[in-house]
Write a structure and sequence with these properties.
With 254 residues, the chain is α/β, with parallel strands linked by helices. It contains 11 helices and 5 strands, in the order βαβαααβαβαααβααα. The protein has a 5-stranded parallel β-sheet with strand order 2-3-1-4-5, with helices on both faces.
Length: 254
């Protein structure tokens, strides 16, 4: 199973990805985690990319596509994966399609978590306050101001993917403002429908059309014979006309 989670930052994609991974046994692929892991591992990322990540802005497509391509080629991703945070732009979506096509694969579903942005900001502010109260460390991009910038970037660059995947028939929209359990159940129902779509009906072969064609031809032949018989004059009438004609000819010769 290959799934993409779409939704603005703070919509709960990471939480739902964990549920999907646990239920279906597939690999979670978060671009944020992969980028941070690449930096930690000393990958040769451009210095400006690290600054972009720290600000919470979108990383260049070329960098992200390369990281995702390398990660999906690993053995544990062969059974399936769920992408969280990728693709974020139309070029990334097209690159993902090309990558999957080369491997003879395709996406099973794209789940959109639809949310109210105003309520989303309230949610992130509450979460940050709770993390402060617990003494937990915050990431540089985990604050309301950064979220506002990321929401603006999402609207401009990622939102168009909704129409892109809707046209492909793989988009499933879920109310991301519902409770976590309700969102999870809605996603599971959407995945069940995606995984068990009925196969398209097979078109009838040439052999199956022949009997109907012969039957139709035979019927036309039967009708034509009846029409011919109906058009012929009755034998008695025809013979009677001939007899009267001969009698008239004899009278004229006398």
């Amino acid at each position: 199973m290959r799934v993409v989670l779409l939704g603005p930052p703070g919509a709960g994609k990471g939480t739902q990805a964990q549920h999907i991974v646990a239920k279906y046994g597939i690999v979670p692929l978060s671009t944020g985690d992969m980028l941070r892991a690449a930096i930690k591992a000393g990958a040769s990322l451009e210095p400006k990319v690290k600054d972009i990540i720290a600000r919470g802005d979108l990383v260049p497509d070329k960098v992200v596509v390369e990281i995702v391509t390398n990660r999906t080629a690993q053995s544990d991703a062969k059974r399936g994966f769920i992408l969280d945070g990728f693709p974020r732009t139309l070029p990334q979506a097209e690159a993902l399609d090309r990558m999957l096509k080369k491997k003879g694969l395709k996406l099973d579903a794209v789940i959109e978590l639809k949310v109210d942005e105003a309520k989303l900001l309230q949610r992130i502010e509450t979460r940050v306050a709770q993390m402060h109260a617990r003494g937990e460390a915050l990431r540089a991009d985990d604050n309301p101001e950064t979220l506002k910038r990321r929401l603006a970037a999402y609207r401009a660059q990622t939102a168009p993917l909704i129409a892109y995947y809707a046209d492909k028939g793989v988009l499933k929209t879920v109310d991301g403002m519902a409770s976590i359990d309700e969102v999870t159940l809605a996603i599971e129902r959407a995945l069940a429908k995606a995984a068990f779509r009925p196969a398209p009906a097979k078109r009838a072969g040439r052999s199956s059309r022949k009997p109907a064609k012969r039957k139709k031809t035979a019927a036309r032949g039967k009708r034509s014979k009846v029409a011919v018989r109906a058009a012929r004059p009755a034998p008695g009438r025809r013979n009677g006309q001939k007899t009267r004609k001969n009698a008239r000819a004899r009278r004229l010769t006398k």
